[in-house]
Design goal:
Layout (H helix, E strand, L loop, with lengths): L2 E4 L5 E4 L7 E3 L6 E3 L16 H4 L31 E2 L4 E2 L20 H25 L8 H19 L3 H34 L1 H29 L14 H9 L1 H4 L3 H31 L11 H8 L19
Antiparallel strand pairs: 1-2, 3-4, 5-6
Helix pairs in contact: 4-5, 4-8, 4-9, 5-6
Keywords: Membrane, Transmembrane, Transmembrane helix
Protein name: Zinc-ribbon domain-containing protein
Organism: Anatilimnocola aggregata
């Protein structure tokens, strides 16, 4: 089929098909003229091509991946469908999470539609798990200790009870009281260090405050104890104010229970041990004072009262006057 060619000079002529793509001279102006190849005629448009556009349907983009389980669109490189839970790599539908209670509100910026619902459920579950972890941390006690440790502790308690039953009652109570005070001292020191270490992860200034705050409180309570003992001519009664030692650590631990939850019951236990230990020492001294008042049939030089025995076991001045109940003193 001849190719129609038009030159810039206005001349027009028909060239043969074999000249397509070649350059020839214009018959009129002799200028070189390139003959273009003939273009193929466009395919006829089907008469029903625009019917789907009229009702709002559009052709789906074939480049967007679809879920094999439910057919929903999935983001590129996605592994899990948020609509039905189908795992593309495993080739099966995963078990979905059932959230109890009211449906959680959509998280701001979490997306639209199914993605927003999935984000809200994940965030709500994470918050619930965090609360459960805090409760588990607070409720930690003896759980997790190996059986041999529990058996050794039980055996030590039984042995201690047997030994205490073989010595005078006042000496047993006095020794038990001092033992509890010693345990309370080490336990209080441990809790103090734990709270300082946990506070350092929150704010270094908070750790410094716990260190100096607890130190200043201990000095104040010790001074107050000496003043009360001097006023009452007794050491044991004034020493009860020292049970408040550890209050700074307790307040900080309760304010940051997510970091120091396990220390809170230990601090309460330290205060309780200190109170019980002082009470046992007080009872031992009262028993000793009552025994001295009654006396016995033996000569004075052969008689050893419970308080004197306690004095021999614990070489610390115990009483200022063995004959006066009001002047009973301990740990001076």
């Amino acid at each position: 089929m001849p190719i129609k060619v038009a030159c810039a000079c206005g001349a027009a002529f028909a060239a043969k098909d074999e000249l397509a793509g070649r350059t020839v001279a214009c018959p009129k102006c002799k200028q070189p003229l390139k003959i273009q190849a003939p273009q193929a005629a466009p395919a006829p448009i089907h008469s029903n091509a625009g019917l789907f556009d009229d009702i709002g349907l559009k052709a789906r983009d074939s480049n967007i991946p679809r879920c094999p389980g439910c057919g929903a669109d999935m983001p590129p490189n996605a592994v899990l469908c948020v609509k039905c839970g189908y795992n593309v790599k495993l080739g099966k539908r995963m078990q979905t999470i059932s959230m109890s209670g009211d449906a959680p509100a959509a998280v701001a910026g979490g997306g639209h539609g199914a993605h927003a619902d999935a984000t809200a459920q994940i965030m709500a579950k994470a918050a619930k798990d965090a609360e459960d972890d805090v409760q588990v941390e607070i409720s930690k006690g003896m759980e997790g200790l190996p059986l041999p440790v529990l058996l050794v502790g039980l055996g030590a308690c039984i042995l201690f009870a047997i030994v205490m039953s073989l010595i005078p009652q006042a000496v047993a109570l006095f020794g038990t009281g001092y033992l509890l005070l010693t345990v309370a001292g080490f336990l209080g020191l441990f809790c103090w260090i734990r709270v300082i270490a946990a506070s350092a992860t929150i704010n270094p200034l908070l750790a410094v405050g716990v260190f100096f705050g607890e130190l200043i409180l201990s000095i104040i309570l010790t001074g107050l104890s000496f003043l009360l003992n001097y006023a009452m001519e007794s050491v044991i009664f004034g020493s009860y104010v020292t049970c408040a030692a550890g209050s700074v650590s307790l307040v900080v631990a309760m304010m940051n229970s997510d970091k120091c939850g396990s220390v809170i019951p230990m601090i309460w236990g330290t205060m309780g041990l200190r109170f019980v230990g002082l009470t046992l020492i007080l009872i031992a001294l009262l028993i000793g004072a009552a025994a001295e008042k009654e006396g016995d049939a033996r000569p004075q030089q052969q008689r050893s009262s419970p308080t004197e025995l306690a004095w021999q076991v614990w070489p610390i001045p115990l009483v200022r006057s063995e004959r006066s109940f009001g002047s009973v003193a301990a740990i001076s």
